[in-house]
Amino acid sequence: MRRLLLNFLLPALILYVSFYLVIFSPLPYKYLIGVLILGFTLVSFYLVLRKIKTLLDRILLNIKGLSSSSNISPIGILELDESLKEIDEYINRFKEENKLYTRLFQSIQEGVIVVNKNKEVLRINPTALKLLNIDQSVNLEGRPLIEVIWNYTLDEMTGKVIETGEALSREVSFDHLNNRIMDIMVSPLFNERGEIRGAIIVFTDITDKKRLEKIRQDFISNVSHELKTPLTSIKAMVEVLLEGGAEDSKLRKDFLENINQEVDRLSRLVSDLLLLSRLESDREFLNPISTDFVTLITRTVSRFQPRAMKEGITLSLEIEGDIPPLKVDVNYIDQVISNLIDNAIKYTPSGGKIEVVVEDLGKDIKVSVKDTGIGIPKEDLPRIFERFYRGDKSRNLSLGGVGLGLSIVKHIVEAHGGRVGVESEIGKGSTFYFTLPKG
C-alpha cells in the first residue's frame, strides 16, 4: 500500500493539481503554463529518484547477503553488477532530464523565482532577472527574497502563501523600477509528504498594458463627452423649435445655424475616427505624386489667414532656401499642416503670433509651426503624439477634440518616411515640426 501511494498516487496527485490549476483556475493562463511545467518537473524528478532509491535498497541487500555468506555466489555478483548498471543508467537519465527542465525553466517567458520555507532564493530564471533589472551573472542562490525583489508587498505575499498554503495573485507596483507594474502569482511548493517547503513566484510586466487601458478609458470618456455635448445641444434646440419657437424667424435661423455647426462637429469627429482606423490598418493608403511643396504649403497657410485675423493672431510663412518638389500625398500632407496650424490657433491668445517655417536640411525638408501660445507641460511632451492623449484636460475640454489630430499627423508623416517632434515651454509657446525626405 505504501509503495502504491509513493509510486503512483503522489505523482498522480501532483499532475492532477497542475492540470486542475491550468483548466479551472481563474488566474492568468500564462502563469498556469509555468505551474504545469514545474508540476511535470517535480513528478519526473520524483519518479527517477524513487527508482534509484529502490535499486540502492536492492544493492544493499545483495551486499549484506554477500558479506554474511562464506561462499560468494556468482549469481549474487551478477545481480550486484546489473543493479549498479541500472543505477548508472538512471543517474544519466536524471542528468539529461535535469538539463531539459533547466532549459525549460530558463526559457519561460514569465519571471519565475523559487524560494524555500525561509524565503531564501533557490532558483531564479533569466526573465525574472531582466524584469528586476539584475545582472544575469549575479548568483542569488541563498539570498533573502527581499534583497532580490526590494518589494515588501511581494515579500509579505510570499510569506502568507508559505504560512497558509493558499495561492495568491495581485498587481504590484515596484517603486525602484520606475513604478513598473507586475502581475504576480505566488503558489505554495509542497514536498512528497504534502508539507510546505517554499513557494513559486511567477510574474510579468503589465506596465504597458495598464497604460493602454488608461488610454482606452480616456478615449471612451473623451468620445462620450464629444458625442453627448453636441447631441444634447441639438436636442434642446429642436425641442424649442417644436414647441413653437420655429414661428420666430430670427430664433429659427440662429438655432438652425447652431444645429448645423454641431452636426459639422460630429461629422469631423467621426471622420477623424475613421481616418485613424484606416491609417493604422492600411499601410498602403498613400498616393504620392511629385508636388511643388512651396505652393502646397502657401495655399494651406493662406486658407487659415482669415481665421487667424479674426482671432487677433498674426500668421506668417517663411521659406528658407530653395525647396525642391517633393513626392508626397497632397491631401494627407495638407491635412498634417492644417492640423498643426489649427492647434496653434486654438492655443494662442489674441495678440499672439504663429510662424510656419520651411527649411532645407540636406536630405530632408523640415516644416515647423511655432506659436506664442500657452505651452505644454514637460510631462506631457513624450506622449503628445499618442492617439487619444490630450494632456491637461482642464485646458482641453473647452476647446473640443478627443486627442486624435496629432496621432493622425504622426501616422501620415511616418508613412512618408519622415518624423515628428515638439518643443515647448509653459507660458512661452510651442513648436511642432515634421520632416519629409527629398528622395
Describe it.
The chain is an alpha+beta fold and 439 residues long. It folds into 5 domains: 1-63, no CATH class; 72-100; 103-207, PAS domain (Beta-Lactamase), CATH 3.30.450.20; 210-281, Orthogonal Bundle (Helix Hairpins); 289-437, 2-Layer Sandwich (Heat Shock Protein 90), CATH 3.30.565. It has 12 helices and 12 strands. The strands form 3 sheets. A 5-stranded antiparallel β-sheet has the order 2-1-5-4-3, with helices on both faces. The chain has a 5-stranded mixed β-sheet with strand order 7-9-10-12-11. The protein has a two-stranded antiparallel sheet with strand order 6-8.
Structure in a nutshell:
This protein is α+β, with helices and mostly antiparallel strands.
Give the rounded overall mean pLDDT.
80
Provide the spatial order of strands within the biggest beta sheet: 2-1-5-4-3
CATH architecture descriptor of the largest domain: 2-Layer Sandwich
- Tell me the domain tally: 5
The helix count comes to 12
Q: Helix proportion of residues, in percent? A: 40-55%
Low-pLDDT residue intervals, each spanning 5 or more residues: 1-31, 394-398
> What's the N-to-C terminus distance?
82 Å
Q: In CATH, what is the class of the largest domain?
A: Alpha Beta
CATH topology of the largest domain: Heat Shock Protein 90
Roughly what fraction of the amino acids lie in strands?
15-25%
Shape: elongated
Give the number of DSSP strands: 12
Query: What is the H/E order?
Result: HHHEEHHHEEEHHEHEEHEEHHEE
Q: Rounded to an integer, what's the Rg over CA atoms?
A: 35 Å
The major β-sheet equals:
5 strands, antiparallel
